[in-house]
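anyone seen this seq b4? input:
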Amino acid sequence: MSTLRRLWALGTGRFGILIVVSLIVVALVSLVWTPFDPAAVDARARWSDPSWPHVLGTDNNGRDIASLLMAGTRTTIVVAVGAGVVASVLGIALAALGSLTARWIRESVAVLVDILIAFPVLIIAMMISAVWGGSLAVVIWAVGIGFGVNIARVTRPELRRVMQSDFVLAGRASGLTTWQNLTRHLLPNVAPVFIVQLSWGMAVAVLAEASLSYLGFGAPLTQPSWGVLLNDLQAYIAVHPLTVVWPGLAITLTVLGLNLLGDALREAADPTLAERAPAARTHVPGVVA
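predicted toks r here
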């Protein structure tokens, strides 16, 4: 609870929490209600300006943009959570193999991580999508694999540091197995670092899904997605520029919120920064590559 209070005390933390909560609420509401059917086409309402009942206007097919954005929130959350799960499993597995196994396995894992980390996440996603075709499953696995390597690289040295702690050595001396030490002592102590990396990875997943869908490698055209909507509307940006603003703003706020939340989590979870919480209100987060 103390970490949560420190997180809420940070302006970046509050902003990130509000963005995440808003996404979840909108996604849940869209399951049972949207202003209009996102797939409904109304030729008579094409390019309606923002007004009642189309509060954000309509697109070239007469579809309600607000309804499309609400339905697209579900796609965004599915990709972010799915990629986060894949990245978590892969990252923890690689970090454990690179810390708790024989020397030749540790060195092999370190070399593998160094090789994979040289490829940007989006490049990995595009390569996998080019082979297996565009779908949300491909985006989830591609981003999960790409960012799982980043998690492994950051978590591995933390695991090795915690392994030298007295309580870990005492657990080993008392007969705990490697798996028991990992689950009881090691993972809980590297959780703050892991959670921060995970939040940044979910932000990358949102941006990757939108980018790949925009390029035609992500969500199918029949599935509501912010990237697909942006791709549909960008051809008309010179004539109807306002329609492009809404999906672009949704993507920007979501990625910004997740990035700021990750930065705030790092500050809130680090005991050495607890005393500097008031000064941290004006902290500007670093750019996530």
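DSSP finds ten helices and no strands in the chain. The mean pLDDT is 83. kinda curious what u guys think
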